[in-house]
Design brief:
210 residues; mainly beta; elongated; 2 domains
Length: 210
């Protein structure tokens, strides 16, 4: 009599190779690539459970949960309890800072190079507590990185402060130029037209005449 010895092969543990995009905000979709994923797999990012969609043995979809800014670890767990970990997989960026136009905390010398489709901003920060002024912060963006041009005007005491702001595709808002002496509305409209971008006009309090 022959006896057959059946050996049960344990399931292979999953593995994660890449996560796209590497920088994402809560609510954004993620594409997770790896191997040996099983339908019903669950996941967490930064220790917070997240919605996971099974797309196949090598691909999962997921949604970034509510997380604090920073770089977070991804864990994918199959229904049998085996898991894969990818450290520093997704970075949640800091939220855009609230702008304070004409605040005097820096001076921006800006250039608009239409022929090269570039916008350059040199930010000069003042010295503090008797220290030397820091080196200028030099920013450069292509037209493709700009989503829209904004014009903003605010009454500040007896002054009216006017500013041109660049809104980037990643959500940042950067002061291109501001002044308590000039009204930049026409210039903002001209820039937006040259860049083939929309212009958003934002006023607070009374709108001055051109």
């Amino acid at each position: 009599m022959l006896f057959a010895l059946l050996l049960a092969c344990p399931a292979t543990a999953p593995s994660v190779t890449t996560v796209d995009p590497g920088t994402a905000k809560p609510g954004d979709s993620l594409s997770i690539l790896g191997a040996d994923f099983v339908d019903g797999a669950t996941g967490s990012l930064g220790g917070v459970p997240m919605d996971v969609t099974f797309k196949g043995a090598v691909s999962l979809g997921a949604t970034v949960p509510e997380l604090q800014p920073g770089t977070h670890e991804l864990v994918i767990t199959n229904p049998d309890g085996q898991s894969a970990t990818l450290a520093a997989s997704v970075t949640v960026p800091e939220p855009p800072k609230e702008l304070a136009i004409c605040a005097g905390d820096y001076t921006a010398y800006s250039q608009f190079a239409g022929g090269r489709k570039l916008v350059k901003i040199d930010r000069h920060y003042p010295a503090k507590d008797g220290e030397e002024a820091p080196e200028p912060e030099r920013l450069e963006y292509t037209f493709d990185e700009v989503e829209a041009v904004e014009y903003e005007g605010r009454v500040q005491g007896e002054d009216y402060c006017s500013a041109i702001i660049l809104r980037l595709n990643d959500g940042q808002r950067l002061v291109y130029e501001d002044s308590k002496e000039l009204n930049f509305k026409s210039k903002a409209q001209e820039m937006a037209q040259a860049m083939s971008k929309p212009v958003d006009v934002v006023y607070e309090d009374e709108v001055p005449s051109e």
